[in-house]
Each structure stands twice: as C-alpha cells, then as structure tokens.
C-alpha cells in the first residue's frame, strides 16, 4: 500500500475505543456485499475506517460515508477548520471515501489528486485529507459534509436563500478558476449545500481539467473575426455530422468535411453551448454556464430544467429560449453550421423574466426576483463564452453583493 497524498505527521497518538457502528441496515444486500468485499480486499483500510453506507456513485467511482477510526492519531488542522468540523474528543468523525474504479486512467486520478491538493485552503472547495493506493485500487479520503438534497429545498427558497447559495458556489468557482481549473461538472449534486448553516462545498473533481494556455485569447479573437463577417456561408465543419435530426434541424447534404472532436464531458442539461458544438476552445466559462442553469432552476422551480438525451436536441432546447437567430450565430462562432426547420421555433429570444413567469405559471414568486437577479441569469447564460460573466465578477454583481 502506498500513500499518494499524505496527511501531516501524526501527533499525540490517543488510543480510541472501537465503535459499535456497522453498515447501515437500510443498505440493500447487494450494496452491503459490495462494501464487505471492498474492505476484505483492503484489510489495512478496514482497520482505519468503518464504512457505514454508500452515498454516491458515478461512472468512475463510488463514494461511501465512513467513520475515521484513527482521526486523533493525525494532525488534521489543515482541513478540519476548512470543512467546518466541530467536535469533542469523544465525538466520531465522519469522512467520505471516494473509491476510484480500475477503469479510470492513472493520469485522471493523479490529476484529480493534484487539483485537490492545489486547492487546499480554498473556501467552499472540499479539502483532501489523504489518498492511498493498493494495487490497482485508489481511495481518496475527504471530509463528510452534512447537506440536504437540492430537490428538498430549491422550490421553497426565498430570494435571499438563492443569493446565499449562489454566492457560495461562485466563491468555489473563483478559487478553481484562479488556479486555471475547469470543473466541467457543476450541478447541484456536486455542490454539497447545508441549507441550515448556509455553507456549501464543491466536490467531485473526476472530470476537472486544467485550462490550456491562451485558449481564452483564441476564443476572443475568434469572436472578433466572426463579428466582422457578413457572409452566411456554411462554416468549415457541420454540427453533429451523421446524426439524424428528424424535424429539429438540418445539415447540408453530402457533407464530406471531417467531424469535430472535442471534450464533451459533463452532465446533460448543464453543458454549455461551446461543449454541445464541440468547440476546441473551452474555458472556465463552461462552469459559469452551469451555474446559470442552476440559477434558472431556482427561478423557475423546475429541476432539471433541460432534459434532452442528446446534443442535437439540447441545442434545440436552447433555441426555444434564445431563438434560432442567436443559435445560428453562436454556431458560426464555433465554426459550425446549425439550422432549424421546426416551425414552432421563434427567431427571437423569449427573455428570461418572461420565461420564468411562463414556466412557473405564477407571477407571485417571479415578481419577488429583483431585476439584478434576471441580469445575473442572463450574464451567466450568455451564449458567447468570451462575453459570459466570470465567477470573480459574479461575486461583485449587485444580486450577489446585496
């Protein structure tokens, strides 16, 4: 067993009585067997942590809530305060064990650990406690953060509650983006928010990447070039080549140009237009877009807001809000052709205030949202990533600052 990211040197080793806790009886037999097999394969881990239950699962990992049996044998000062852990010597300390599957690449794992280490001390970002490997198994140990399910409170939030949530989320993003990190999977389930304490913690860096240098500059230059063009000729590459659009959109026939390849990682419904259009110039602005989608869920009391199963229909969903004129324009910005032949799609944008009133069907709540709230929503969901508001500027926006 090797330590990939060590805790501080142990201090004042204090003997600790064994805990009576066992696997949560509410777990199904299959999950309980999975936990037992996992611990049997890693006896050293079983001596240090008592897993209670599975609290999350993704394509590349599972996350378990556990008791840290050896907490007092280590100096945890680097993360306890950041995680907001308050305890007496007799209290148990819960942690989250992120078990990364063997199918995940070594580079991806090391990148995630490095990012978490670089972000140590950052507000609203989950700190790393330690990371260890045994054979092809890797576990990242993180603080367990008490939180509520987004679905349990998002429809009952008042404007000030929404403001506080978004302030915490933008605080986390500001830290990431100052380190040149794109999270790539911003969504409510990756932001552990405690509605009682009004504190949030950004988690799950499994898809995160360091932004390539000069990408933002190239994006701005591309926007300048596009704005100077008056021609409506097809761009160099078609959008979603070889995909059947049915009646939603059309692609020039006999398309022979090569398809585009770009990172499309993220969760459906939260991916920015530049991701859907397979732009190779993706920046930290993709995270701000996802924040905008979250804000839209708050304002409309609708979650998830976007529900398409593929990129083609995801673009059509955006066209329902922004209009076909703007979608064709943003497509050209990313060197892509997009055209719609859906007769019910409007050419012009509906406007976010009107959209929120339409979706809620009741102006009682939407009238409580101040104009600056809709302004922030519009600036987060700016189709052009070069013009989209940054996390730093969002924290100074009147809606957040007030």
From TrEMBL:
It comes from the Eukaryota. Transmembrane segments: none annotated. Its EC number is 2.7.11.1. GO terms for molecular function: ATP binding; identical protein binding; protein serine/threonine kinase activity. It is an enzyme of class 2 (transferase). GO terms for cellular component: chromatin; chromosome, centromeric region; Dbf4-dependent protein kinase complex. One of its GO terms (biological process) is protein-containing complex localization. Residues 49-400 form the Protein kinase domain. SUPFAM superfamilies: Protein kinase-like (PK-like). PANTHER family: CDC7 KINASE, ISOFORM A-RELATED, OVARIAN-SPECIFIC SERINE/THREONINE-PROTEIN KINASE LOK-RELATED. This is non-specific serine/threonine protein kinase. It comes from Gonapodya prolifera (strain JEL478).
């Amino acid at each position: 067993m090797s330590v990939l990211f060590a805790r501080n040197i142990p201090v004042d080793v204090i003997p600790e009585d064994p805990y009576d806790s066992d696997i949560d009886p509410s777990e199904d037999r299959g999950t309980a067997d999975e936990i037992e097999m996992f611990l049997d394969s890693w006896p050293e881990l079983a001596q240090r942590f008592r897993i209670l239950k599975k609290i999350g699962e993704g394509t590349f990992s599972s996350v378990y809530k556990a008791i840290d049996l050896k907490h007092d044998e280590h100096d945890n000062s680097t993360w306890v305060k950041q995680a907001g852990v308050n305890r007496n010597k007799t209290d148990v300390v819960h942690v989250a064990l992120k078990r990364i599957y063997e199918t995940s690449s070594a580079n991806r794992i090391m990148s995630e650990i490095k990012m978490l280490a670089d972000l140590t001390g950052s507000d609203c970002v989950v700190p790393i406690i330690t990371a260890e490997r045994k054979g092809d198994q890797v576990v990242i140990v993180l603080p367990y953060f008490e939180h509520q399910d987004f679905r349990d409170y998002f429809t009952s939030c008042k404007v000030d509650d929404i403001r506080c949530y978004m302030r915490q989320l933008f605080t986390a993003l500001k830290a990431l983006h100052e380190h040149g990190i794109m999270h790539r999977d911003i969504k409510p389930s990756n932001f552990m928010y405690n509605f009682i304490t009004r504190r949030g913690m950004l988690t799950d860096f499994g898809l995160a990447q360091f932004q390539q240098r000069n990408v933002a500059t190239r994006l701005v230059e591309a926007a300048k070039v596009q704005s100077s063009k008056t021609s409506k000729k097809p761009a160099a590459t078609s959008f979603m080549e070889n995909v059947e659009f049915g009646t939603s959109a059309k692609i020039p026939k006999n398309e022979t140009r090569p398809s585009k390849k770009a990172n499309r990682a993220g969760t459906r419904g939260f991916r920015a237009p530049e991701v859907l259009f397979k732009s190779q110039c993706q920046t930290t602005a993709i995270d701000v877009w996802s924040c905008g989608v979250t804000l839209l869920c708050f304002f409309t009391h609708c979650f998830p807001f976007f529900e398409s199963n593929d990129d083609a229909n995801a673009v059509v969903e955006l066209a329902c809000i922004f209009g076909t004129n703007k979608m064709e324009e943003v497509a050209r910005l990313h060197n892509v052709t997009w055209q719609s032949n859906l007769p019910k799609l409007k050419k012009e944008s509906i406007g976010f205030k009107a959209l929120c009133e339409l979706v809620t069907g009741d102006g009682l709540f939407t009238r409580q949202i101040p104009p600056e709230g809709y302004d922030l929503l519009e600036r987060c969901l700016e189709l052009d990533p070069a013009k989209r508001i940054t996390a730093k500027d969002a924290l100074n926006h009147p809606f957040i600052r007030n």
